[in-house]
Amino acid sequence: MGDILKITAKGAKNAKGGLVPQSPHPFHRIRLDIIGLLHFWITALLFFCLILHFIFPVTLFWLYDQTNFIYNPVVSAFSSNITPQTVEFLPGTRLFNMLRAADTEPKFGLTFAPDDNSMKVDVGNAFDVLSIHIDPLTTLNAGVEFFAYAKVVEYRDYRLQVAAIDGYFGGNISILKKLPDSPHQILARLRFIHRSAHLVDGAWDPSNNSWKDGVEPVPFADDFFELNPAIQLHYQEVDIRVYGGLAYSILIRPKDQERFSFSGGSEIIFNDPLFNFLQKPVRIYGAWDIKMKARPKYLPSHSLMAGLKFGEKQGIGLSIYAFYYSGYDYFSAYYKSRLNKFGVGFFLDFNP
User: Fold this and answer.
1) Among 30, 157, 182, 250, which residue has the least CB neighbours within 10 Å?
2) pTM for the predicted model, two decimal places
3) C-alpha closest to that of 318 among 288, 291, 282
4) pLDDT tens for residues 318-329?
5) H-helix or E-strand containing 67?
6) Alpha-carbon distances, residue 350 vs 165, 216, 318, 330 (angstroms)
7) What is the pLDDT of residues 47-97, one digit of tens each?
8) Distance from C-alpha of 229 to C-alpha of 265, rounded to nearest angstrom
């Protein structure tokens, strides 16, 4: 995105915290706060040092396994039962599955909104890199996340016109605890995510040499920690997940937003398949997510989703769904706007 986000303020002037374009290519004039950027990278370094705190014992376990080198203090810091066989590199599964109805989760698919013929296109994924089996009931994973979603407003001249993009990257640590003598599980996930938002060519009106609808770019950035505790309930008829969330932004721009935000929600999927399609089970599921953000006033944002999952309940598959959203615009270039949106869509579930 070097061409799109070229750092220069020359030829642009400040107007109510935004940037007024001076040419048909105003994307080159988005300012970047260098101090804020350094702030993010320093914090990201500290966060990944925490992840390395878990990777470092793996190296010691490997040395122990290969050379019989013994270094007990680090091992005992986790558990006296940890052995080289309880640490797994590239486990192939995510411990904490994505929250289906939440807009800040990695997905791969699209949602079509018939009211204005726009599409929300999601691209990206999350990947667990390391798994530590602390004991037979407890597992801890560390992973990375890279994803983005774009607002497609029209198809013109054999290409999609993209008006806005939100990009995310960061990492997470998740833990799962199986309850003794029970099918239920307790989970938690801690994320550190950098989020940025950008207006792009689909939001520019070349005939008037101006931004459409008078919405100008803002230097939006949000570097936040998020903690999501959850409980996974397994019954004969259904599986249910209930979760909460607390997020704190260590860096947030523009400044007219509160640093704390709150979330919660639930998901349900029926265990008995509704039917089979090409020898794969198809199940009904539903999901709800609520977020409380202040931009600048705390107001709720609701996401509702209901659909069909082709494939295993928590495995690789295809989801087709209907979607309703009411709240602050999930495209942060319009972060103060409120919208009500109905849509239909699909996403590919890569979590095995």
Assistant:
1) 157
2) 0.77
3) 282
4) 999 999 999 999
5) helix 34-67
6) 22, 36, 9, 23
7) 555 555 544 444 444 444 444 444 444 444 444 444 545 889 989 889 999
8) 11
